[in-house]
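pls design
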């Protein structure tokens, strides 16, 4: 399964739960696929705008809360919201969009969505699904996958050949390249310029 198909399949679950929390008990596959595609595109635009603001504001791709807020404003998640010019004229920052967004995120009408997303004390969604399919209830079964913790790096053994690991092969390749460069250096007086020096090194 490709990474695109994997993440699309993972996104189907929260979309189904959101529909269930909104009161829908059934939907056609084409409708579900459309909603999943819209959610993926929305998240892609939100992430792209956040990265763009981070690079513009402080010349790095590590976003801050300000970059996220500006991206949310770009995609229309913060509404109603005055423009920066209107805020300068009024002399105060417009907080209505942020307050409405926080009220939407923490309101009682979305309690079921938050419960399914794992933000409440009860377990649901992927957490319950992982425990259902794990006999021991531990994270070891999902270690090294997108659903679990990262796995410890282990040496990759190469069957056959003079080397047994990637590290030994990399070291041998570097030594071989150094030997080739050293053998290409001619004696003084030769008309061939070596790889180690060049006429520009004396400038």
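designed seq:
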């Amino acid at each position: 399964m490709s990474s695109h198909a994997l993440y699309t399949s993972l996104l189907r679950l929260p979309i189904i739960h959101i529909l269930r929390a909104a009161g829908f008990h059934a939907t056609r596959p084409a409708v579900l696929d459309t909603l999943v595609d819209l959610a993926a595109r929305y998240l892609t635009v939100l992430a792209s705008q956040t990265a763009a603001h981070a690079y513009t504001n402080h010349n790095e791709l590590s976003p801050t809360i300000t970059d996220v807020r500006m991206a949310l404003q770009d995609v229309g998640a913060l509404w109603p919201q005055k423009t920066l010019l209107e805020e300068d004229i009024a002399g105060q920052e417009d907080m209505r969009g942020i307050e409405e967004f926080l009220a939407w995120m923490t309101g009682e009408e979305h309690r079921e969505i938050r419960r399914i997303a794992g933000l409440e004390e009860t377990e649901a969604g992927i957490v319950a699904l992982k425990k259902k399919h794990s006999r021991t209830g531990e994270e070891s079964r999902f270690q090294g996958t997108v659903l679990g913790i990262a796995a410890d790096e282990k040496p990759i053994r190469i069957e056959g050949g003079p080397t047994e690991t990637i590290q030994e092969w990399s070291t041998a390749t570097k030594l071989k390249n150094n030997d080739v460069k050293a053998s290409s250096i001619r004696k003084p007086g030769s008309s061939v310029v070596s790889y180690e020096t060049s006429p520009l090194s004396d400038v």
